[in-house]
Amino acid sequence: MIDNVTEELYNELEPKTFFNKILVTAEEIIANSTSPRRKIKRPWNQYMIFKKNFSKLIKNTNIPWKGNMKSVTRVSGHIWSKASKKEKESFCILAQKARRLHKKKHPDFFYAPINRKFQELFIHYNGPSSSSSPNANSESEQQDDISSVQVQQEQRQEQEQQEREQQEQREQREQQFNNQQIPQPIPQPIPQPIPQPMPEPVQLPPQFVLDFPYINEHQNYEVYSPELYFPECLQNLYFYPNYC
């Protein structure tokens, strides 16, 4: 049903008109924030300003429900929820300006929302007050309360969406860090001794052939063959004088 209503609305006005053409001012909003017989009203948020501007835009059209605030609130809330942050930016700036003017005009103002459950419980036990009637709040103020709740829900949803995106980014960074291969130190080869060529066996002359075993002091083993290497014997031919 809401889609049919918005389609009927778009036949009268272009969608970009609702965000580009602003007919309300911050001074006008502050002028309507007080009443001689009522308490000070709270400053309007960006959606409430958009709804006021929306109702002014459709005032001179042929839309049949332009005077029904319930339909205006429902359609304006639907359009506002589909709008982007860039489209809402002008109304956010206007709401900030109106809030500053409201603070300057009413420096001691403090907004305290009414606890509906406590109020209903009080009326249940004590009965309705003689000075108040069930129609004390106008329909427009009730719609303003509903619209403010819708805006708060949208802000809460945007905040939750941002928190989810931040959580996903943190998980992605952690996953990338865990997937990175930490460079391991390359083990260095153990130095191996350079192999030395074995000396060729030396054939001793017959006069140097020993008839008894010779004890090698360095290797500590007995030598029986004259073909082994004996440096001292080769350096000094008269090492064994009895055989020379």
Give structural notes.
The longest helix is centred in the middle third of the chain and has 41 residues, at 139-179. The chain is an all-alpha fold and 244 residues long. It starts with a helix and ends in a 9-residue tail after the last helix. Helices cover 51% and strands 2% of the residues. Strand 1 (214-216) and strand 2 form a beta hairpin. The chain has helices spanning 2-12, 17-20, 26-31, 46-57, 69-82, 85-105, 116-126, 139-179, 231-235, and strands at 214-216, 221-223. The chain is built from nine helices and two strands, in the order H-H-H-H-H-H-H-H-E-E-H. Helix 4 (46-57) crosses helix 5, helix 4 (46-57) packs across helix 6 (85-105) and helix 5 runs parallel beside helix 8. It is rod-shaped, with a radius of gyration of 50 Å. The chain has a two-stranded antiparallel ribbon with strand order 1-2.
